[in-house]
Specification:
alpha+beta, 38% strand, single chain, 155 residues, 6-stranded mixed sheet, 51% helix
Length: 155
Amino acid sequence: MCIISCKKSYYCQELFSQAKKTTYKANLMGRKVIFLVFCFLSGSLFGQNQTKIFDYIVAQDYEAIQQSFTPQVDVCILSYEDLLSKNEAVNKLKEFLTKNKPVQYTIKHKGNSKANQSSYLVSDLYTQNGIFRLFVYVSEKNGIFRISEFRIEKV
């Protein structure tokens, strides 16, 4: 009787040990899958967040635009060109958008640097007074992406 009990006990221990190994492998695999999904989504969200600036412009959401800018922004609007503080840049953009009420935009092109530390976006901005080409340069500093340059030209 004692021998059968010991054999059962050993068998149970072996099964328990195998179950622990299988559970560990499943946990590890689950973590890898979650990590890969997170990486994929964060990359997709990063791309979406970059194009949000055009949504802000069409909606004329100046507070969101200001938060998207670096402290100093290189601004070129038609014949005007200067390096401005983010507040001045927003005011200059507001002045342009007041005269040219935006209706919609179409992304024409976007690209990233090799190290993914900067990117650019090119869009056609449709306004009540015509179409303008909008160039946006986005740079990364301390893991935060901000707009450091934008240009508006008549198409």
